[in-house]
């Protein structure tokens, strides 16, 4: 207890003496106020350098090169691992073709047999010979690696160019153009290496207006300049199909093919029995096996892309390929399509289109009558036979508009390699001095009357002035034909028309090319032979650079019906044909022709519905009013547009004569030079020279890149510490 008491005593003493100590402490003097200084100036802004100083630039450059090389190898390696994993997972597939198929009897499909053809094809595929898992893996690995390598190098090239800094905008544009050429050349080589299905994809890419012109011009050779198969290999396939050798079937057969397509090639031969000269179309050997592998691998890759990038959906592409490719591999299906399309055009008293006669057909071999002709965009051939290229473009627009809007059964692959033009033959139904021969009927689509009627009404609304009522109608029919709402409507309009958009198409972006006011309708298009370069660049930049726009394009392709995808494709292809002809009637002329047949299709649909109402409800004042309104709309559009079409003929002729006179005066009254300019030969020659120069520069750049890569790899061990 003593320590505790001592502690309490100490506390009491502190309490007693603390106040006294405080009172005894001396008082501190007051501190003077702090001096006042003038206000300070703002500190200078910090200077930030875009790139830090590099103490050892040579070491840094080598490290960067090593990193780029390692990143490229890692990207390619990951793609290879992805393909190999998918191949192992789907190793039970059956990619081999039915090489030992029994001999088929020649036939021409009747319309009643068309309905069960697809079922027969599926059964034939399911009964084909089963391949070993290792064979599938090796084939899939080799073909898929070619595409993955090309795509990976393109991605790396674009990233390098887009992330670099340039001294001027012109330097940046030129470097990006060269990058387009290099990447397009890489893809072209990869597609030609694999062939088959990949050639089909490249043909479609070569006609898309949303792609830069460097891509479309580079991929153009895929339309009809593919690698041929040697004739002895084709004879093996021919004997498997027909049971005859070439000597037994033909008096002679030309070793040089007259055409090499993605799935088949054509040779000229003389039938031994009839003595008729035929064009014999034969499937490339092993194309079925590769096609099965390609379909399987594209499906795998599409699913993996969807899993890794949920916004990028390409399932529609795989579905369409899996559905249509087996039909294209059976030439009996092609013969049936040709027969049906020929019957559709038999109703016309005058038409320029011609369908080659088919004497006999097997599953992988088809014989047609031989037709002498050239590509429709061969301007030298047109000039030699005094054929007006403007009339050729107009007839092409009429033919495909009749297919789409009147018949509802249309050729879905009308590129320049599938068309021939020849002088008018005796007893022809053509009113012009030429005929257009339609080839390759393997890919056709059928569109029902309701869908094509609504699509025709949508076209007519695009040709009307952009009043609030017309703008509502445009969006209404966009919803009906493509299941497209207001969010994706601007993209659909540009995809259908190939232009940058009309007034009211995009409320968030009311101005068009170079900040100008948008056009009210398609009839307000400016003149010229093709779409202005500024507008093409505006469309491409809007789609490729605007945030989220590319995802919106994919969303549009996913939403629209499959038949509408083919309609968009045929629009691109016909516009591409018109541009390659270097026409002088202006870009609005194809739209005028399309609108005429749209008006006819709408009028026929209205008549059908009104007759049904008459039979059901009887005659009424409202029925008479609706019939009068429909008849007046048809008269206004069909006859009015026909008058505009005649006026465009006059404008096209005047422009040709002006080109002739202007060139005649410029070159010192050289009539031959003036004639070449008026025929479009000079424009086409300049385009071909530019394409050839771009192709050569792209090849040289690729060779230089390969040499630099080899040099870096050789120097890497020496630079290692």
From TrEMBL:
<dbReference type="InterPro" id="IPR051130">
    <property type="entry name" value="Mito_struct-func_regulator"/>
</dbReference>
<dbReference type="InterPro" id="IPR011009">
    <property type="entry name" value="Kinase-like_dom_sf"/>
</dbReference>
<keyword id="KW-0812">Transmembrane</keyword>
<dbReference type="GO" id="GO:0055088">
    <property type="term" value="P:lipid homeostasis"/>
</dbReference>
<comment type="similarity">
    <text>Belongs to the protein kinase superfamily. ADCK protein kinase family.</text>
</comment>
<dbReference type="GO" id="GO:0007005">
    <property type="term" value="P:mitochondrion organization"/>
</dbReference>
<dbReference type="InterPro" id="IPR004147">
    <property type="entry name" value="ABC1_dom"/>
</dbReference>
<dbReference type="GO" id="GO:0005743">
    <property type="term" value="C:mitochondrial inner membrane"/>
</dbReference>
<keyword id="KW-1133">Transmembrane helix</keyword>
<dbReference type="InterPro" id="IPR045307">
    <property type="entry name" value="ADCK1_dom"/>
</dbReference>
<keyword id="KW-0472">Membrane</keyword>
<feature type="transmembrane region" description="Helical">
    <location>
        <begin position="73"/>
        <end position="93"/>
    </location>
</feature>
<protein>
    <recommendedName>
        <fullName>ABC1 atypical kinase-like domain-containing protein</fullName>
    </recommendedName>
</protein>
<dbReference type="Pfam" id="PF03109">
    <property type="entry name" value="ABC1"/>
</dbReference>
<feature type="domain" description="ABC1 atypical kinase-like">
    <location>
        <begin position="222"/>
        <end position="471"/>
    </location>
</feature>
């Amino acid at each position: 207890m003593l320590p505790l008491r001592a502690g309490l005593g100490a506390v009491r003493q502190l309490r007693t003496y603390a106040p006294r100590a405080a009172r005894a402490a001396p008082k501190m003097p007051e501190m003077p106020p702090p001096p006042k200084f003038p206000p300070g100036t703002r500190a200078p802004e910090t200077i930030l350098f875009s790139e830090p100083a590099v103490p050892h630039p040579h070491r840094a450059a080598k490290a960067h090169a090593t990193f780029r090389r390692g990143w490229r190898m890692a990207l390619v390696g990951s793609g290879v691992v992805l393909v190999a994993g998918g191949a192992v997972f789907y190793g039970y597939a059956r990619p081999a073709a039915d090489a030992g198929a029994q001999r088929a009897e020649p036939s021409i499909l009747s319309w009643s047999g068309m309905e069960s053809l697809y079922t027969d094809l599926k059964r034939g595929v399911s009964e084909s010979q089963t391949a070993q898992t290792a064979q599938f893996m090796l084939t899939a690995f080799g073909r898929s690696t070619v595409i993955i390598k090309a795509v990976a190098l393109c991605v790396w090239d674009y990233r390098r160019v887009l992330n670099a800094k340039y001294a001027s905008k012109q330097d940046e544009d030129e470097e990006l153009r060269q990058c387009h050429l290099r990447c397009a050349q890489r893809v072209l080589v990869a597609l030609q290496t694999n062939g088959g299905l990949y050639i089909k994809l490249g043909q479609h890419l070569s006609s898309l207006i949303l792609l830069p012109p460097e891509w479309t011009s580079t991929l153009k050779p895929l339309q009809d300049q593919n690698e041929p198969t040697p004739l002895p290999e084709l004879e093996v396939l021919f004997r498997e199909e027909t049971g005859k050798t070439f000597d037994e079937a033909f008096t002679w057969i030309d070793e040089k093919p007259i055409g090499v397509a993605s799935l088949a090639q054509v040779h000229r031969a003389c039938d031994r029995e009839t003595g008729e000269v035929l064009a014999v179309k034969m499937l490339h050997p092993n194309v079925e096996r590769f096609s099965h592998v390609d379909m399987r691998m594209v499906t795998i890759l599409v699913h993996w892309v969807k899993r890794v990038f949920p916004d990028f959906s390409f399932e529609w592409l795989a579905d369409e390929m899996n559905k249509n490719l087996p039909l294209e591999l059976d030439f009996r299906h092609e013969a049936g399509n040709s027969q049906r399309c020929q019957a559709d055009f038999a109703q016309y008293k005058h038409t320029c289109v011609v369908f080659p006669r088919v004497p006999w057909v097997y599953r992988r071999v088809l014989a047609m009558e031989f037709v002498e002709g050239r590509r429709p965009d061969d301007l030298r051939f047109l000039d030699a036979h005094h054929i007006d290229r403007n009339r050729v473009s107009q007839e092409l627009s009429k033919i495909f508009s009749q297919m789409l809007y009147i018949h509802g059964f249309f050729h879905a692959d009308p590129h320049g390699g599938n068309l021939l033009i020849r002088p008018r033959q005796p007893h022809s139904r053509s009113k012009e001095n030429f005929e257009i021969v339609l080839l390759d009927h393997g890919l056709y689509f059928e569109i029902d009357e309701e869908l094509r009627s609504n699509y025709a009404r949508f076209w007519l609304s695009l040709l009307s002035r952009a009043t609030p009522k017309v703008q509502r109608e445009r969006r209404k029919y966009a919803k009906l034909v493509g299941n497209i709402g207001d969010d994706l409507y601007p993209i659909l309009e540009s995809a259908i028309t190939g232009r940058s958009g009309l007034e009211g198409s995009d409320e968030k972006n009311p101005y068009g090319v170079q900040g100008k006011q948008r056009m009210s309708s398609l009839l307000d298009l400016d003149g010229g032979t093709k779409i202005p370069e500024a507008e093409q660049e505006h469309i491409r930049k809007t789609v490729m650079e605007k945030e989220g726009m590319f995802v919106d394009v994919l969303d549009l392709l996913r939403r629209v019906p499959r038949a509408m995808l083919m309609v968009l494709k045929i629009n691109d292809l016909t516009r591409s044909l018109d541009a390659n002809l270097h026409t002088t009637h202006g870009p609005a002329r194809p739209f005028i022709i399309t609108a005429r047949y749209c008006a006819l299709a709408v009028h026929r649909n209205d008549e059908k519905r009104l007759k049904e109402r008459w039979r059901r409800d009887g005659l009424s004042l409202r029925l008479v009013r609706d019939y009068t309104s429909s008849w007046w709309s048809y008269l206004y559009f069909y006859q009015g547009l026909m008058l505009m079409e005649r006026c465009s003929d006059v404008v096209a002729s005047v422009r040709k004569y002006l080109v002739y006179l202007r060139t005649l005066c410029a070159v010192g009254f050289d009539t031959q030079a003036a004639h070449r300019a008026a025929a479009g030969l000079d424009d086409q020659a300049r385009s071909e020279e530019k394409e050839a120069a771009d192709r050569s520069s792209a090849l040289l750049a690729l060779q230089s890149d390969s040499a630099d890569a080899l040099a870096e790899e050789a120097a890497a061990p020496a630079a290692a510490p």
